[in-house]
């Protein structure tokens, strides 16, 4: 299955200021999320940012919010799965896209539950493994195994950006290449 720009959207899940200090490899994960957002923005793939209980967990990290772009909606949710939030689900359905790239935290809670619910709805979750994390590395690794067992597609930030670019002749190729370096 090839992933194409016209059939893909992205959810950047809960990359929030107050939880990041306890996230395993937070700096590397955030850097990959920022690269992913910038690349998807260059490629015209719609992005949506979510926040879980911002009163307690804080706002989305400014670097992530900036990389996603001003046009990326910010949806606040209380449920772990984005699909359990009516406003978020209405927004996703309105995109009319079958593939949903999921990045963010925590892998074993919000990312996993969102992916499982997307699969149940006939959508295809794609998870760049370098753009997700959890507090405990074992939780992250176990969630990635389960995601793959359940049918989610695992990839990396670089791989998905080049798959969406498709060719070195694409006008975005040079910019995407610079982002990856």
Would you spell out the secondary-structure blueprint of this structure?
Blueprint: E1 8-13, H1 26-43, E2 47-52, H2 54-57, H3 62-68, E3 74-77, H4 86-94, E4 99-105, H5 107-120, E5 124-128, E6 132-133, H6 137-150, E7 153-155, H7 157-165, H8 173-180
Parallel strand pairs: 1-2, 1-4, 2-3, 4-5, 4-6, 5-7
Describe this structure in words.
The protein has helices at residues 26-43, 54-57, 62-68, 86-94, 107-120, 137-150, 157-165, 173-180, and strands spanning 8-13, 47-52, 74-77, 99-105, 124-128, 132-133, 153-155. The relative contact order is 0.19. The protein has 181 residues and is α/β, with parallel strands linked by helices. Helix 1 runs parallel beside helix 3 (62-68) and helix 7 (157-165) packs antiparallel against helix 8. The longest helix is centred in the first third of the chain and has 18 residues, at 26-43. The two termini are 26 Å apart. The protein has eight helices and seven strands. The mean pLDDT is 97. Strands 1, 2, 3, 4, 5, 6 and 7 form a seven-stranded parallel beta sheet that branches. Helix content is 46%, strand content 18%.
Features:
7 strands; seven-stranded parallel sheet; alpha/beta; 46% helix; 8 helices; 181 residues; 18% strand
The tally of strands reads: 7
Shape: globular
Percent range of helical residues: 40-55%
Number of helices: 8
Structural class: alpha/beta
C-alpha end-to-end distance: 26 Å
Biggest sheet details: 7 strands, parallel
Specify Rg, calculated over alpha carbons.
15 Å
Element-by-element helix/strand order: EHEHHEHEHEEHEHH
């Amino acid at each position: 299955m090839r992933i194409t720009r016209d059939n893909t959207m992205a959810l950047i899940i809960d990359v929030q200021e107050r939880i990041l200090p306890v996230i395993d490899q937070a700096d590397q994960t955030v850097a990959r999320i920022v690269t992913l957002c910038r690349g998807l923005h260059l490629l015209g793939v719609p992005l949506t940012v979510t926040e879980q209980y911002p009163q307690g967990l804080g706002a989305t990290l400014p670097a992530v919010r900036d990389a996603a772009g001003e046009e990326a909606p910010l949806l606040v949710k209380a449920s772990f799965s984005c699909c359990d939030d009516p406003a978020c689900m209405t927004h996703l359905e309105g995109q009319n896209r079958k593939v949903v790239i999921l990045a963010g935290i925590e892998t074993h809670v919000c990312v996993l539950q969102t992916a499982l619910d997307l699969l149940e709805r006939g959508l295809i979750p794609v998870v760049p493994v370098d753009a997700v994390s959890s507090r405990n590395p074992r939780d992250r690794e176990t969630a990635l195994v389960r995601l793959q067992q359940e049918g989610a597609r695992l990839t990396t930030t670089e791989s998905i950006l080049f798959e969406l670019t498709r060719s070195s002749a694409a006008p975005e190729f040079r910019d995407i290449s610079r982002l990856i370096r």
